[in-house]
Predict the structure.
Amino acid sequence: MRIYRRLLRAAAPSLSRQYGAAMEETLDVRWRQARGRQRIRICCREGVALLGLAWAERLGERARRARRQQQVVAGGKARTMDTLGQEMRQAARRLRRSPSFSAATVLTLALAIGANAAIFAVVERVIIRPLPYPESDRLIELDHGSVALRIANGLGNTPGVYFIYKNRSQSIESAALYGLVARTLSDGGDPRRVRAVAATPSLSTVLRTQPSLGRWFTETEGVPGAPVVAVLSDGLWTRQFGRDPSIIGRSIVLDGHPVEVVGVMTPEFAFPDPATELWLPAQMSAAQGFGLFSQPGIARLREGVALETARAELQGLLVGIADAYPDDPRARSNVNTKLTFTGRLLKDATLGNISRTLWLLWAAVGVVLLVAGANIANLFMVRAEVRQREVAIRRALGAARLGLGRYFFTESALLSATGGALGLLIAWVGLRLLVQAGPSTLPRLHEIQMDAIVVGYVFVWVAVSALAFGSLPLWRGVPMTALHESGRGNTLTRHRHQVRHVLLGAQVAMALVLLLASGLMVRSFQNLRAIDLGFNPDSTLAFSINLPPAKYSTVETMIAAHTTIIDRVAVLPGVASVSATTCLPLSMGCSGNTIVVEGEVYPPGTLPPTSLVRAVGGGYFETMGMRILRGRGIERGDVDRKEPVAVISQAMARRVFNDRDPIGLRLAPNQPPAPDGTRRLEWLTVVGVVSDTPIQRDLPESQPSAMLFMPMPFAVTGTRIGPSASIMNFVVRTSASPESLTAPVREAIRSLDADLAVAQLNTLQAMVDRASARMSFTMVLLAIAALSALALGVVGIYGVTAYIVTQRTSEIGIRLALGAEPTGITSQIVMKGGFVALIGIAVGLAAALAGGQLIASVLYGVSPRDPAVFASTAIALQAIALLACWLPARRASQLNPTIALRAE
Amino acid sequence: MLSDLGLHVLLALGEGPSHGYAIGKAIEDQSGGRLNPTTGALYQALRRLSQDGLITEADGPKDVDARRRYFTLTARGRRAASGEAAGLDALVRTARKRRLFPQRA
């Protein structure tokens, strides 16, 4: 709280004299009583109050002065003293007289502070407060992995596990399961696919949130057989129902069934993600058996329970699942997979490695701010030197050191405040762009805005820069001692140049670090782009159709509908071929299973290999542009006749068959044993091998996932394991531009069934671009930061060299007059600047080598110490630095000695 | 003329001598959270009140932070506070009469 005391002394000296110590004590107590955000609040409020006090003090002083002046005038001796306001006005006038200095300072500060504040706003909302729920640090994710299946995590939960945790765990207070479900909303207008989440009614207890209108689900609504009700998101309520409060109690039509709306959530509520539009009760009971691993879950820890304690307890409870479900063979087979509880804090699970990216960006803009600060410091030092004569005169006339301090402080305060105000504007614009361009995986992205905390953050930077730049000329105020020295700066500049060179070297070092980081990002991005997609995204359109179970209840009716869609779209003009799949590439796992190979024996305790399983239409590989490496693809005839054939990916051929020719071998997606212990497997004959396709783009797998493709009719419904037949993704390869086909495709679907909603209608290329959105977002922002640092650095080098040349004009003139070679003078100046840059580069390289691990996790396929990137960046920067020195140095050598000497 | 904050300080000191932090806390409580003066605003009000002779400094306990300063009401301060309260009371009665304020149960 010493800072407060100092600030108080500066803002309101008289109040500080009278009560300074007591005020410090009071604030001490307040500070100790406050926590976290309250402390930020105190900082902001007290800061603003200080400004108010300074204002009040000034008014008081002016009133006193007015009185005194009247007395003085009455005494016949008129003399005005400087006041804060007058100083400010004078400073403003001085700054107006040197517009280039003022503009350069204000703009540099505004850009640096603006960029900083924009990223800070994101960091503050996304990393520091990612979950908008009360006591969110007690929220954990419920997740499992399997030692035997070699699945580290991400299995999710089964209803059986959920009920065990819910009923037996001491360490968790409440738990909930949820799952994404697709529903078609037909309410008057065109049917529309809505993103719905089926959650156990306990979700609102776990998250401690309530709807803003109506109510959340009751426990009885989460029991199988209860009527289905719905809670709307604020967004859906606004878009679809015009914020009509009478929606509560009304019925909406979901998948052809009427569903009563019981509540509307608050606008902030975005669980599990902002795209969720609707919540439905997940209906489950312990009587339904153990179930399948699929659903994500969350829980709230009891007060004071650590995550580790809960982990240990839940891991222990997993041992009991076979006994808890004696009638369900799935429970026992799950024990065999050696389940592990892998839940993390929900905050960590939500953020993933985004936080690393954002910290990195924040650090990057922080470095830009430092580089900018070095530039401004240089400008101020130059200004102080130019003003030396004026300052010396003021001193000679008896101005106190304090008064001189005020002289510089008023200038730096004015410039910083203007820069800060402009910076706020830039931050506001920048934030809008960030929110629009940011990857949708950023939690709470839609809530990011300029709030009091961001404004406070800018305020702090303004105060820091005002103090730092204002005190700079005082700190190196030694030379302003005497009047007689001030006329000839050329003899005592050595010390000053040293300070300048240190600043310059630091700038080069920081710019290099940023350039290296962005260079590595660009390399990673190139590597990612170079990954073989395994399919051809050009001239293709994709869309998704969800068949409502009310109308399409069996696999046969679903497949018939999908086939009709393929046939209707195929005859549209401009369409080359059409096919369908239950899961597109880059759409994560979708459906996976263990695969039994005929003739192989799997001893107890071991498990068959795992693979992702997709059901596809005829000609799928040809339409996608995937390469068939061996055998043949899946043809229309296979689909129409439900031929038991399969095509496997290269990775699966390698992993499961070890280069044995797989064609003609038989395999089957595993099914859990029926209650009588028997398994009913559908054997498929391998007829071909296709190229691998990635399931995600931002974090490429070290090895491509194994994949099994089978004809569309082998898709499943209900509780059987396998790709679901109800949602199909259609792929259209076009001879015309894919965009021109969106309207005809919609029309074709409408003519088939007016209740079907066409969702995710987009080109495959757009999907590919979106999948790498985060990487490109980071790369672009880092590149902008690096280029700004480079530009500022170059301007700094150029400016300093040019300034030194100007300072040495007379010296150079003398040398030239005495017969020095002009090239010798040029090279001397360039060498000096180049040497400083070289040291800066060495320091930057050392820092980058030391800090490499910080960036390693966001890189792909490139070492954080990549020699090629390091060498090329360092050489390029050195070359740019030399050029920035050479331009002003050349001017020096071209001086006319007589003119140069006259400059004295 | 007493400011809103000034009156609240006098009311807070009605309980007896007190120091900066406690006065701030009392004001927050008695105003139902409506007023929560910053340290700067609070001491500005305290200075004004002592300049006007409504409060004065008092001796505090020996064993507390040496920086802490205690304030107490002067006789004039007491009169000012009760005068202000009487004025407010009259206002409330008028408001009741004109049905602009809930009647007492």
Notes: Chain B touches chain A through 17 residues (CB under 8 Å). The radius of gyration of chain B is 15 Å.
